[in-house]
Design a protein that fits this description.
Number of strands: 9
Number of helices: 11
Low-confidence stretches: 1-5
Oligomer: single chain
Largest sheet: 5 strands, parallel
Mean pLDDT: 92
Strand order of the largest sheet: 3-2-1-4-5
Strand content: 5-15%
């Protein structure tokens, strides 16, 4: 009998090639890189798009709003850090298109309104940030990207009503989340990371340090509850998409952590930092106050954009 190729062999082979494009940017705390075969969830989902001859859809919760701490960021609107990150994502889709002609697209699931009340950012700042993301995407011709937020789901309802709705419908209970944090190292790392960010972002605290830590630990659970709710809602609206994450993810997890830009640790994002253009031509992210010590402030379009070492 003549040899035949298994029907899934070609889609799986192409899916492996595509995943190999993402692996150099894997955001993880695992010390040793792993091959594409160690990511069965992503391979299976990418192969399904390939098999159907359809564009590969990635969902990426993130790009919520700027940190409210002026020592970390340049303002409340997107700047060069976001522009570089958006360009990176669009370029990744372009590279995928060379392997898979139907291409790929990334749906940025901007989640600022989901937990804005818990992180101390006004809802009008969050709207302005997400609106400006859309403007930047259009201005730069990043046609493979789009922005999805709570307005796409619940329209013009009051922000607190939207938050209550998704929390009641999708969020895990506080008891379940606390039990998971005690039992799972990854959940504990996320809880500690968010607690740290909340403490750093509380710039106007007048109480004791220990009281701030207690408040941030409590709010961290709320942020994770809402983030989980948002993730479940996204899965409902985009059930076949490949799920990306801006948080570090272990090898083989259902979510694939992706690093948008070079940064000193696995947790830094453009919305918690400022971009520094180094003398060797590369970019990195760091707190605004530190970047200001290393370079001069550059404006773009009449707004603070980034710092330049040259």
């Amino acid at each position: 009998m003549p040899l035949t190729t298994a029907p899934d062999a070609l889609p799986t082979s192409i899916a492996t090639e595509i995943l190999n494009l993402l692996l150099p940017h894997h955001r993880t705390t695992d010390p040793v890189p792993a091959p594409a075969e160690a990511f069965p969830h992503q391979l299976r989902r990418i192969a399904a798009f390939v098999r159907d001859g359809a564009p590969i859809v990635f969902t990426l919760p993130g790009f919520p709003c700027k940190s409210p701490n002026p020592a970390k960021v340049l303002g409340h609107l997107p700047d060069q850090g976001e522009r570089l990150s958006l360009t990176f994502l669009n370029t990744l889709c372009t590279k995928i298109e060379r392997i898979h002609p139907p291409g790929a697209r990334v749906i940025i699931c901007s989640d600022g309104h989901v937990f804005g009340d818990l992180i101390g950012v006004p809802d009008d700042h969050i709207d302005a940030y997400a609106d400006d993301l859309r403007i930047q995407i259009g201005r730069m011709g990043l046609h493979r990207l789009s922005v999805f937020d709570l307005r796409d789901v619940l329209g013009d309802l009051p922000h607190n009503t939207k938050r209550t709705h998704i929390h009641e419908r999708y969020a895990p209970t506080l008891d379940a989340l606390r039990a998971e944090t005690r039992a799972d190292d990854q959940a504990l790392a996320l809880y500690r990371g968010i607690t740290r960010f909340l403490a750093e972002d509380t710039a106007d605290w007048t109480g004791t340090r220990s009281a701030l830590q207690r408040a941030c630990r409590q709010r961290a659970y709320g942020v994770i509850q809402r983030s989980r709710a948002w993730g479940t809602l996204i899965a409902d609206h985009h059930p076949h998409a490949v799920r990306l994450s801006i948080h570090p993810q272990p090898i083989g997890a259902p979510k694939f952590g992706i690093r948008l830009l070079d940064a000193p640790d696995a947790w830094t994002t453009p919305w918690h930092s400022a971009a520094l253009h180094r003398t060797d031509g590369t970019w990195t992210l760091m707190p605004r106050a530190k970047a200001a010590e290393m370079g001069r402030l550059v404006q773009r379009g009449g707004r603070d954009s980034h710092f330049d070492q040259s």
